[in-house]
Specification:
This protein has 260 residues and is mainly α. It has helices spanning 17-20, 23-41, 45-52, 71-97, 104-114, 119-141, 145-156, 162-189, 196-212, 217-231, 234-238, 254-258.
């Protein structure tokens, strides 16, 4: 049986003919729709659907006063939410039973968006949160951006949460900056000696890497070596000041700047 097409009457029928003469019926419909929407607000989709089941079939596509949704539209929406909720609960149960919880965080976040009033799911979220953050925090403390990326890749197959996704992008930016630095160092080292103009090129890149990943000890060591090199050769670097980007001036030895 095909649904009657009500598109041309702008969002379903409004009261007409005999229906308009029955204000009691209209009031009852308004009450049922409001009650269903109130249940939706409190995430009780089951109760909302039970309420909507009481709407007379002839009024399922009727809009009332200032409300946009018909009983049929709300029913569709609540049914979708309710079945998605059941599906997500099933995935979580199965994951916990099989001890496969790596990809569950994104599922749990969606589940809580549909049903926030679930302390046991909230607890699970906290556990899962701690589980992925702990190794990543340790790796960041060591300045190991590549290690962080490896950890995040484990989650990527299941889908990253918004926060993980932001972290994934910033970690890739760190690695890109560090790779660029390694390339510059190799290039500067080809003739066995890093000359002053190469120092001027390496120093800002090392600072950029440290701004992104402050605990990378090899980059930190390189930055300090370059700084010593400048410090011990102030007169040699004076003419090269214009080669440094102005935003790194504050990191250069003050004696170099007083000559400016």
């Amino acid at each position: 049986s095909t649904m009657p097409d009500h598109e041309d009457s702008l969002g379903g029928e409004t009261f007409s003919g005999e229906e308009r003469q029955d204000p009691a019926q209209q009031t009852r419909l308004e009450e049922l729709l409001d009650e269903a929407l109130a249940h939706e607000q409190t995430f009780d989709y089951e109760a909302g659907l039970q309420t909507l089941a009481q709407v007379a079939p002839s009024l399922k596509q009727t809009t009332v006063s200032d409300r946009n949704d018909t009983a049929e539209e709300i029913t569709t929406r609540l049914t979708t939410k309710q079945s998605r909720l059941k599906e997500l609960e099933g995935i979580v149960r199965e994951g916990i039973t099989n001890r496969k919880i790596t990809g569950l965080l994104i599922i749990v976040e969606e589940l809580l968006a549909l049903r926030p009033d679930r302390p046991e799911v909230q607890k699970l979220k906290e556990r899962l949160d701690k589980r992925w953050r702990t190794p990543i925090n340790e790796l960041f403390a060591e300045g190991n951006a590549k290690g962080v990326l490896v950890e995040l890749e484990k989650f990527k197959t299941h889908g990253l949460t918004e926060e993980q996704s932001t972290l994934y992008d910033s970690t890739k930016a760190m690695i890109a900056a560090e790779t660029e630095l390694i390339t510059l160092v190799k290039k500067a080292n080809t003739d066995g000696i890093i000359d002053r103009s190469e120092v001027a090129e390496l120093f800002p890149q090392a600072l950029q890497c440290l701004a992104l990943n402050p605990n990378n000890s090899s980059v930190l060591k390189l930055k300090n070596d370059l700084l010593d090199r400048i410090q011990n050769d102030i007169n040699g670097f004076v003419n090269l000041l214009p080669a440094f980007p102005w935003d790194v001036f504050t990191y250069l030895p003050p004696e170099l700047l007083t000559t400016f």
